Amino acid sequence: MPIKARWEYHGVYYTTKGSISAEEIYEARKFMFTPPEGIEPQYQIVDARESDKIDLDQMELFNVSADDLAVGRKYPDLKIAFISINKQVEETFINHFKISWSLNTVANIRLFNSVQAARNWINLPYPKSNENDANGSSAQNRITLPKDPD
After folding, report:
1. φ, ψ for residue 74 (rounded to 5)?
2. Which residue of 15, 134, 136, 139 has the fewest CB atoms within a 10 Å radius of its CB?
3. In what order do the strands lie in the sheet with 79-83?
């Protein structure tokens, strides 16, 4: 599957590869609506640096934007960070932003060209690993929350 998702301490980190279809996006979005117990999502990171195309027609793009509206209403402080280095993918994200904003989404949405810039904007702790962010962890759905200092 060209989209992988993993839960982090405060949100979801998605990675994409190759050409992404609407069906793949719809399937991956279900992940956001089933957070682990005790986590209220505060962000989504969509790391599309390894994608060359997001293949959506106008209706599919509208439906994805409407989903962001629903996610934003469920989690009103949600930040959505898109990361891309491909102009065609960026154009799709920008069209998505325009539709989301026309629907009055409450989610805060931004486009970045690096993971670090997105994480700086989100400004929340996240799991560190020896692996590149785009590779994810071996336990995609499991996370360990940091212990409270005594």
Report:
1. -70, -35
2. 139
3. 3-7, 11-21, 43-55, 79-83, 108-112
* Token pair for 125: 């702790």
**Residue pLDDT, tens place only, 11-68:** 999 999 999 999 999 899 888 888 999 888 999 999 999 999 999 999 999 999 998 8
The number of CA neighbours under 13 Å toward the Cβ of 7 is 20
In CATH, which of 3.10.20.30, 3.30.930.10, 3.90.550.10, 3.30.750.24 is domain 3-130?
3.30.750.24
- Amino acid residing at 75: Y
Taking every pair of Cα atoms in the chain, the longest distance, rounded to a whole number of angstroms, is 53
